[in-house]
Protein: Response regulator PleD
Amino acid sequence: MARILIVDDSPTEMFRFKEILSKHGFDVLEANNGADGVTLAQAEQPDLILMDVVMPGVNGFQATRQITRAEKTRHIPVVIVSTKDQDIDRVWGKRQGATDYLIKPVDETQLIQVIQQNLNME
Structure:
């Protein structure tokens, strides 16, 4: 089954995402900040990344840009999952290379649909 990297500094959100993804049969990798997310993406080559935006140090926009512009990781779809819900945030997220942008709290059905679309599993 597909491996998904979750990059989120909130233990609560991490737990919730892991619970949903495991239930749907996905293998889960975890990083609790943007810098670790970039490193893990390069080392583990996950099939998809769920990226929070507001994190200390390297934020989600910066991490997404690094992942989507690096030769080794540019093929990995990055879905931003954030509480930042302004249109400008969505536009900026897509400009950094994100394939999708979801607003927290995310509906489980919507999350799985977006993951499947990005993995071409429909």
The helical segments are 11-23, 34-44, 60-69, 87-95, 108-118. The chain has a mean pLDDT of 97. The first helix runs from residue 11 to 23.
